[in-house]
Amino acid sequence: MAKTICLVTTGGTIASQRNATTGHVTAQIGGNGLWASLSDRLDGVNVIVDEFMTVGSFALTLEDAFALASRIKDHLSDPKIDGVVVTHGTDTMEER
C-alpha cells in the first residue's frame, strides 16, 4: 500500500535562485517546481504539494511559524496523509 506524504514548502534557500535581471538570489521556486526538479522518485510514496509560502528564511516571522504549525497539524489530522515534510532554508537554524 502506497504512503502519502504532504510536502509543505515555505521558500528559503532550497527555493532560491538567481534573478537574471537583478542578480539577486531570492526564494522564488514554488513547491511544484521543487517537486518537479527531483530526478528520483520514491517507490510506494505519493506526494501532495502544499505551497504554503515562498519567502526567504530570514523573513520567517513568529506568526508564520505558528501558521505553519497549524497547517502541519491540519495535514496530519487527515487520515489520508501518512506524514509531512517541510522545506525551508538555513537562516532559520540560527538562534535569535
Outline the structure in words.
With 96 residues, this protein is an alpha/beta fold. The protein has helices at residues 31-37, 62-76, and strands at 3-11, 16-18, 25-27, 45-55, 83-87. The strands form two sheets. A three-stranded parallel sheet has the order 4-1-5, sandwiched between helices. The chain starts with a strand and ends in a 9-residue tail after the last strand.
Number of distinct helices: 2
Portion of residues in beta strands equals 25-35%
Distance between the termini: 43 Å
Biggest sheet architecture: 3 strands, parallel
Shape: flat
Low-confidence stretches: none
Q: Could you say which structural class the secondary elements and strand pairing correspond to?
A: alpha/beta
Give the C-alpha Rg: 14 Å
Helix content: 10-25%
Please trace the helix and strand order, writing H or E for each element: EEEHEHE
Largest sheet strand order: 4-1-5
Mean pLDDT: 83
The count of DSSP E runs of length 2 or more, i.e. the number of strands, is 5
